[in-house]
Amino acid sequence: MSRQQTLRITTGGRGMTDITAHVEEVARAGGAASGVVHVFVRHTSCSLTITENADPDVRRDLETLATRWAPDGDPAYRHRNEGDDDMAAHARSVLAGSSVTVPLNAGRLLLGTWQGIYLWEHRKHAQTREVVVTLLG
Amino acid sequence: MSRQQTLRITTGGRGMTDITAHVEEVARAGGAASGVVHVFVRHTSCSLTITENADPDVRRDLETLATRWAPDGDPAYRHRNEGDDDMAAHARSVLAGSSVTVPLNAGRLLLGTWQGIYLWEHRKHAQTREVVVTLLG
Amino acid sequence: MSRQQTLRITTGGRGMTDITAHVEEVARAGGAASGVVHVFVRHTSCSLTITENADPDVRRDLETLATRWAPDGDPAYRHRNEGDDDMAAHARSVLAGSSVTVPLNAGRLLLGTWQGIYLWEHRKHAQTREVVVTLLG
Questions:
Q1: Which of A43, A84, A137, C65 could form a disulfide with A72 if both were Cys (CB 3.0 to 4.6 A apart)?
Q2: pLDDT at A2
Q3: pLDDT band per the 50, 70, 90 thresholds, residue B2
Q4: With an 8 Å Cβ cutoff, are C90 and B52 in contact?
Q5: B24–chain C nearest CA distance, Å
């Protein structure tokens, strides 16, 4: 069994967008499948990540740390084609990853209570991002 | 084919617990399946990671580096609900990830000789963690 | 459906090798399958990562950042068996990960235009690396 759907998500620039409900909807539409849901972003300057869904300060603090892991406009960068946030975005994408996979049981995601699936936009300006959701069972 | 089992692992606080044998046991119970094994942790303050299984100093040095990647009690953090290690644990979880997937051949994990699967506890105190193992073939 | 193949890739020491074409070849050989392709490296001192395939400066800048994330020969390391780049390589492997998964549609990888799949060698000297590609559909 496999079932695949592409979502288009418009981000508001740097920050996280909770896409858990979108992924759950694809899972439900797949019937009572068990296996895993694979979520993949077709870009190299944003990520998919799983993190705490309760206190928004967690996402805020992750931004603070990410600017240390990959500073904007670092003088050591050679890749600067699209501005100060360009290379930093690629580096964040490598660190946080391009996909997440979540176990699926009878059509229901087995996320923990505090886990949400986030599209993490690493560019400063709003973008439309393609996210491919695949059910594997 | 998909087969799913939830393990409960009690950690001893910050540090890595080798869960390779547990995952192998689920794989064996699934018969001679080929495909991949997906391992997922239902929490946002610990990780699953694959690293060297020989010299324990590797895991010790990873702790040293992790305290630089996400320092405990950093003055910049706003999220401090559960203590100094709270936000650091969420950040480590984003960096090291919530799941690993390993190829499976005829019921056997295709790990390299030096690879082990570790539950990496990021909180300072012992926790009981739910780990979902799914065989996909 | 699952189909599995092991590739042997010789790297030129630290740096990234584009293996996208190799993974596409395995996908094509699998017929018109839909699902995901899972790519896994059987080592703890190199990674698989997805990043920009256009400007080589992106890969160069990622090396620059990686030497900050995990400096070679850091005085705090205890694991030094195989030289200055040994522990740094394990740490990079944890950060960038040991596997990537990409959605597959009718035998075609659903990578974005600018995404390439790279074997990221973290050791300074050339190595031969085993990469297991599994099609799941």
A1: A84
A2: 67
A3: low
A4: yes
A5: 16
pLDDT at C43 over 60: yes
Backbone angles phi, psi at B81, to 5 degrees: -50, -45
Residue B30, domain CATH? 2.60.120.460
> Mean pLDDT in chain C?
96
Contact of A18 with A106, CB cutoff 8 Å: no
C-alpha B58/C-alpha B66 separation (Å) is 12
Contacting subunits of A (3+ beta carbon pairs below 8 A): B, C
Q: Which residues of B113-133 are buried (b: 16+ CB within 10 A; e: fewer)?
A: ebbbbbbbbbbbeebebebbb
Q: What is the DSSP letter of C119?
A: E
Task: Please answer yes or no on whether B110 and C40 come within 8 Å at the CB atom.
Answer: yes
**What pTM was computed for the model?**
0.98
Number of domains composing chain A: 1
Residues in chain A, pLDDT under 70:
1-2
User: Testing the interface with A: which of C101, C108, C111, C120 to mutate, by most A Cβ within 10 A?
Assistant: C101
Q: How far apart are CA B112 and CA B102, in angstroms?
A: 10
Residue with tokens 């670092």: A74
Chain C residues with CB inside 8 Å of B115's CB?
Answer: 42-44, 98
Task: Give per-residue burial for A89-98: e unless 16+ CB within 10 Å, then b.
Answer: bbbbbbbbbb
Contacts of B55 (CB under 8 A, 6+ apart): C79, C81
> What is the rounded distance in angstroms from the CA atom of residue A120 to the CA atom of residue A91?
13
Q: A94: helix, coil or strand? A: helix
Enumerate the H helices of chain B as residue ranges. Answer: 20-29, 56-69, 86-96
| A35–B94 C-beta distance less than 8 A | no
The string of pLDDT tens digits covering residues C76-98 is 999 998 999 999 999 999 999 99
Adjacency order of strands within the sheet including B99-105: B2-10, B128-136, B35-41, B99-105, B108-109
- Domain of A40 in residue numbering reads as 2-136
